[in-house]
Amino acid sequence: MSDKGNEDVNPGEGQGANNSDEAVKEPIESDLLSAKIEELEDKLLRSVAELQNLQRRFERERADLMKYSISGFSKDVLTIRDNLKLALENCPDESNVIVDGIKLTITEMDRVLMRYGITLINSMGKEFNPHLHQAIVEIEDENQRPGMVVKVMQDGFMIHDRLLRPALVGVSKKSTSSE
Questions:
Q1: Domain at 136, CATH number
Q2: What are the angstrom distances between the C-alpha of 59 and each of 37, 54, 118?
Q3: d(Cα 88, Cα 3) in Å, to the nearest integer?
Q4: Residue 139: helix, strand or coil by DSSP?
Q5: Using one digit for the tens of pLDDT, what is the confidence trace for 51-96?
Q6: 25 and 100, same domain (yes or no)
């Protein structure tokens, strides 16, 4: 009978030990699962935020592409405008029908360019700005303070808020003659 008593004691002790092991394992597994859930929620939130940032960036790039995609074409059209202005400046007879046609063409071209966000940079008489102008020559001018645009050789243009083409200008400088 003593063997039976030992058997009775051992199974009871074993069950108590298993129950306490299970009780310890359950909070540990629960903590691990909670930690894993928090980690996955964090990853999900970060992924969603990254996706939203990518969408905003792509929208911004798409808008820029739509705004500035005509830059190359615009530069080519501006060369034609430059040639028309050159023809106009070198026409001896101002009352000629051809001169009137050239003036109308330039005016209409400027309107079309403006419709697409391309605007003329008014440079004459303004202070030289290296972000908008490219100085080609310095010109002595007693009537202007140094650094002022006194001659425009080629008009500059902006496309929306970006420089499309700098104006080629002559800039005033101090007179070197001592009179």
A1: 2.30.22.10
A2: 33, 8, 22
A3: 124
A4: strand
A5: 999 999 999 999 888 888 888 899 999 999 999 999 888 887 777 8
A6: no
